[in-house]
Design brief:
- The chain is α/β, with parallel strands linked by helices.
- It folds into five domains: about 1-60, no CATH class; about 65-170, Beta Barrel (OB fold (Dihydrolipoamide Acetyltransferase, E2P)), CATH 2.40.50; about 170-215 and about 375-435, no CATH class; about 350-370 and about 440-480, no CATH class; about 490-725, 4-Layer Sandwich (Metallo-beta-lactamase, Chain A).
- The protein is about 45% helix and about 15% strand.
- The chain is built from 25 helices and 24 strands.
- The strands form five sheets. It has an eight-stranded mixed sheet, with no helix packed on it. A seven-stranded mixed sheet has the order 16-17-18-19-20-21-22. It has a five-stranded mixed beta barrel with strand order 1-2-3-5-4.
- The two termini are about 35 Å apart.
- It is found in: Cell membrane.
- This is DNA internalization-related competence protein ComEC/Rec2.
- It holds the Pfam family DUF4131.
- Keywords: Cell membrane, Membrane, Transmembrane, Transmembrane helix.
């Protein structure tokens, strides 16, 4: 089973998928090896073949390039639970059809200002379709991999639509609405998340609180909830049988096992049957079968069966972080609780699991680029029994009894009150201990630290166990290669339609623009802050906001709030929030950090926001970079009269490659070899303009486009080449 699981998981790490002929050869070879009883290599090949076949099927079901950016009339049925965020509604459309083209089976859509939608309704929609893509940054969430794992073949935005058929048998959507209408001390959205796994009612602040305290697994249905419900049903029947209250004509054990399993399945169906729920149901079913037959079953057998069952049902599950965290948490508990001598007191049994899980999950959170909750062990000491013994039973019982006029709502009110008290306590704890995002390190360093965690999880009598602490501390005191004097490490981040560039010298860090903010999507918080932390940046020496447009300045407040900023400069101070305490850009000002020279320029005759952009020139060992913000052709002509009009190898495309910028005279005077373009894929502005791209190409300039390449990194002062994250090939990326 280990070999089969390894083959299924190997899909996650493939740079590309083998063609059909190779898949057939792998399958035949695997079957032959199994026939000759060479089970490990044979099952590995069989598992890998099945995973690759499913991966190719998901890739083939994606939107074709010819339809990318086109608007079509589409008919389909709404599935799942539509999620409302502000004025925007997000939902999935299944069995989508169009008269003009073949569409993927499932499409994820966003409808700004649209009417309420119900699961099960059939709609006719005018949709601007896009191929599934996502931002790509160091230690960032891979949205494109997530879409593939969800079998979503296209995304899009709805322009208009009309209802064709009302919902039929949309019981989950109806139950969710009933829960949200209950008076539960303003915690009805939290109860919907706990009972149904519907997190659409939780705000971004709610998610921050859960993440900061490491309690996400308690409020979004996990295997723990499934096991708890099954245990309650089994224990209740066993208690009734013990005191003679169970019907004697019915054998209590088969009924206890059967009802416990069907109760778990019903709860899983209510929750949408995600990966943690699948794993819990498979493991629970095996344990109950063995219990029914009065046989002892070790923990690893159901664990491996559940692992293989989940991966066989959906091999793409390994692309989701939740898969790794779910199985790792269970493996840690089994490894640390199994085979230990002597009983544990109730205090140890209460406190030790939280500490062990926090320690065991740390390497997985680290390599997945997820924050580590420092308050998680303490928060879970209270939250786990509070949710498990008080909130969840009353919430489930209240949901079950909702048809009773007053009883169900009363129980939900009690559950909401209990939940409210817990949330207030978690908020106090989160205010004192913020989550920590370890810096990115080479794989070898991570492996040493993970080995240190393994040593610490061993029994206390193991001699080498104390050596785990110095290995784990590698995460805190991360060895990193210093940037040589006279060089600058430059990152153009992938923030969509906006700009954010990080410049790091040996001892200083500068951020040029902070990414866009559009409604609830703050790329300063979502992208810039995590990248800075992954680079080991604890404080910015300078944040230079070119001008006040939201695609450049939108994320500035989030960066200032999460990362210390010593100084802020902007070309348009009046348009920025007062909290930034920005200073004006002074044309001609320059300074030197670690042998690298920085110079500012701003057009004194600027008449609009774009023209007021503060331009930054960076010079390291006679190699130059020019960051231009959104200046237009008029400002470019003025810049050619300044000291910055010198040969410059690296140029940030003015105004994202707009037709009103990148004039021929400007490009010829700078004689740039590489142009950095930061923009959103399929943006409505048409950036970069085809004429501008043709101009770049005619001058022999290499264009590094964030929409095509993801985040781009190079070292100024070495005259080397740039690297992009899409150079790290994965089979789900273009």
């Amino acid at each position: 089973m280990l070999a089969l699981a390894s083959g299924l998981i190997a899909l996650r790490f493939l740079p590309g998928l083998p063609p059909g002929g190779w898949l057939l050869s792998m399958l035949v070879a695997g079957l032959l090896l199994v026939v000759f009883r060479l089970y490990p290599p044979g099952l590995f090949l069989i598992g890998l073949t099945w995973a690759c076949f499913q991966g190719q099927a998901a890739l083939d079901d994606r939107l074709s390039a010819a339809l990318d950016g086109r608007t079509l009339w589409v008919e389909g049925r709404v599935v799942g639970l539509p999620q409302k965020s502000g004025a925007s509604l997000r939902f999935e459309l299944q069995d989508a059809q169009s008269r003009h083209a073949t569409l993927p089976a499932t499409i994820r859509l966003s409808w700004y200002g649209g009417p309420p939608l119900n699961s099960g309704e059939r709609w006719r929609l005018a949709v601007k379709l896009k191929q599934p893509r996502g931002l790509l940054n160091p230690q960032g969430f891979d949205y494109q991999a997530w879409l593939l794992a969800q079998r979503i073949g296209a995304t899009g935005t709805v322009k208009t639509g009309q209802l064709l058929e009302p919902a039929t048998h949309a019981w989950r959507d109806g139950l969710r609405k009933r829960l949200l209408r209950t008076d539960a001390n303003e915690r009805a959205p939290w109860l919907a998340a706990l009972v149904m796994g519907d997190s659409s009612g939780l705000s971004s602040e709610d998610w921050k609180l859960l993440q900061a305290t490491g309690t996400v697994h308690l409020l979004v249905i996990s295997g723990q909830h499934i096991g708890l419900l099954a245990g309650l049903i089994y224990g209740l029947i066993a208690l009734l049988a013990r005191y003679g209250w169970w019907p004697r004509r019915l054998a209590w054990l088969p009924w206890a096992c059967g009802l416990a399993f069907f109760g778990a399945l019903a709860y899983g169906l209510l929750a949408g049957f995600g990966v943690p729920v699948q794993r819990a149901c498979v493991m629970l079913g095996l344990v109950l079968i063995w219990r029914l037959r009065f046989r002892h079953l070790g923990g690893w057998m159901p664990f491996l069966v559940a692992l293989n069952a989940v991966l066989i049902i959906e091999p793409l599950a390994s692309l989701m972080p939740g898969f790794w965290l779910s199985f790792t948490a269970v493996a840690v508990l089994m490894f640390t609780f199994g085979g230990r001598l002597g009983p544990w007191g109730w205090r140890v049994a209460w406190t030790r699991p939280q500490i062990l899980i926090a320690l065991g999950l740390f390497p997985m959170l680290w390599i997945l680029g997820l924050p580590v909750s420092l308050s998680g062990p303490l928060a879970n000491l209270v939250a786990v029994p509070w949710i498990s013994l008080l909130v969840l039973p009353t919430a489930l019982l209240g949901t079950l009894l909702l048809p009773v006029p007053w009883l169900g709502e009363t129980l939900l009110w009690v559950s909401g009150g209990l939940l409210d008290g817990l949330i207030r306590g978690l908020a106090l704890l989160a205010g004192h201990l913020s989550p920590w995002l370890p810096a990115a390190v080479p794989f070898g360093v991570w492996l040493l630290s993970a080995f240190g965690v393994l040593l610490l999880l061993l029994p206390a009598g193991v001699i080498l166990r104390p050596l785990g602490w110095p290995l784990v501390l590698l995460a805190v005191f991360t060895p990193c290669e210093p940037i040589p004097r006279g060089q600058v490490e430059v990152w153009q981040l992938d923030v969509g339609q906006g700009l954010a560039i990080v410049l790091r010298t040996r001892n200083h860090t500068l951020l040029y623009d902070a990414g866009p903010k559009v409604r609830d999507f703050d790329q300063g918080e979502r992208v810039v802050v995590p990248v800075l932390r992954s680079l080991g940046v604890g404080e910015l020496d300078l944040m230079l906001v070119s001008h006040a447009h939201l695609d450049h300045a939108g994320g500035a407040l989030a960066v200032q709030r999460e990362i210390g900023v010593m100084r802020v400069i902007s070309g348009e101070v009046s348009g920025l929030p007062e909290q930034l305490r920005a200073q004006p850009c002074i044309s001609g000002q320059s300074w030197e950090w670690d042998g690298v020279r920085f110079s500012l320029w701003q057009w004194s005759a600027a008449s609009d926001s774009n023209q007021r952009s503060c331009v930054l020139q960076v010079e390291a060992s006679d190699e130059r970079l020019l960051l231009t913000g959104d200046i237009d052709a008029q400002a470019e002509r003025a810049l050619l009269q300044s000291p910055l009009a010198v040969p410059t190898r690296w140029l940030q495309a003015p105004h994202h490659g707009s037709r009103t910028s990148s004039s021929a005279d400007f490009l010829k005077a700078l004689a740039s070899q590489v142009v950095l373009i930061s923009r959103g894929h399929g943006n409505s502005f048409g950036h970069p303009h085809p004429q501008v791209l043709a101009r770049y190409q005619a001058l022999g300039m290499q264009a590094l486009d964030s929409a095509e390449r993801g985040a781009v990194r190079f070292r100024l002062g070495t005259f080397g080449n740039a690297e992009s994250l899409r150079d790290q090939r994965r089979f789900w990326r273009d």
